[in-house]
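User: Please look over both lines:
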Amino acid sequence: MQNFRNYYQILGIPKTATAEEIKGAYRRMARQYHPDLNPGDKTAEETFKDVGEAYEILSDTAKRAKYDQFSQYWKQNGFQTGGSATRTRRWSGSTRKAAEEVDFSQYRDFNTFVDQLLNRREDADASPRPPVNRDPYRPGTNKTAYTVPRPTPRNAEARLTVPLEKAYQGGRERIRLEDGRSLEVSMPPGMVSGQKIRLKGQGVNGGDLFLKIELAPHPLFNLQGADVYCPIPLTPSEAILGGAIEVPTLDGLVKMMVPQGVRSGQKLRMAGKGYLLDGRRGDQIVEVQVLIPQELSPPEKELYEKLRQVETFNPRADLMP
């Protein structure tokens, strides 16, 4: 069936996965395929987007329940092709009075079937139109004018989960709503969770649609106000000697000077490299993590042996009586 996506397969989890397992799979895959860690790799970029879409559906209990219900119809023969085969199954929606026969071959793709399943077709239950009098002026008849009331416009609200980088940069983006519609949205830079974007005329019967923004969890960055926190691993030699290293930021890789003798857990501030909030740019706080190699090559081991023989630093000197 066109457009169907197996979100469980994308995240590599079973259908019985718990919320914690879903979150763990997302964080693991998001870190693996993040564009900052795979520069120029289009395949990794597309996979990163698919992983985010899968997490958005499966992490939401209501969306996940609907998705599981839809997916069982996709497996039926004739429904996947949307072609000539006519297969029927019985189903009943929550707003239907009784079950009805559904011809799966009438749906051109998965999204069309979802629209029908959720009773989004306004004319699905419409009553038949009365016959039209073709000659209202014949003898013995009067012409009567009727006023048909217009539907009342109503505002609607939808949740939109946005990656942190996209929320920071803003710009035009094509999104797909829960009702199957695809819209192009102009998003301002520096969006935050809870912020609403108004789409004029895209609500119910010509009302407005308000998109409630929610920032997706990021595998590397942690946003706190206008500041961005980020852990950065260092080798022992980088921590001891210091020097310039490349650090990922919302603007891409940026060089940062590491001071000599930096300690694990120490925080370094990169001014003006944080998030854009209320017209002010925050800082990026880098937390140093000094990592010890688990395996050494013969030359590396030889150098560490030489270092141990000549080094004067004794971290246990104060422990002596």
The mean pLDDT is 79.
